[in-house]
């Protein structure tokens, strides 16, 4: 897949835990819809600065490959510090 995120959802820490449906409405670019990919990787991070790019020391969590055709819930835990 592309090197940049396909979708973005911005929330405040106070909103956590947060449940959402991952679908084409979250696509960053209309031509790169989530439904056009068999699998995606999910990631979440807490940004102290609010910037788009990850900064050293920011807490984050990542998933393994997730099928875009599976409706099963995925739990993403922010459990490590990014470098």
In short:
The protein is mostly beta strands and 83 residues long.
Commentary on this structure:
There is one protein chain. The protein is globular. Strands 1-2-3 form a three-stranded antiparallel beta sheet, with no helix packed on it. It has strands spanning 39-45, 59-67, 80-81. The model has no long low-confidence stretch (mean pLDDT 88). The protein has one domain. It is mostly beta strands and 83 residues long. It is built from no helices and three strands. Helix content is 0%, strand content 22%.
Descriptive keywords:
single chain, 83 residues, mainly beta, 3-stranded antiparallel β-sheet, globular
Number of E-state strands: 3
Radius of gyration: 13 Å
From N to C, what is the helix and strand string? EEE
Q: What's the number of domains?
A: 1
Biggest sheet strand line-up: 1-2-3
Global outline: globular
Estimate what percentage of residues fall within beta strands.
Answer: 15-25%
Helix content: under 10%
**What is the structural class?**
mainly beta
Low-confidence stretches: none
Mean pLDDT: 88
What is the CA-CA span between the terminal residues?
23 Å
Number of helices: 0
Largest sheet: 3 strands, antiparallel
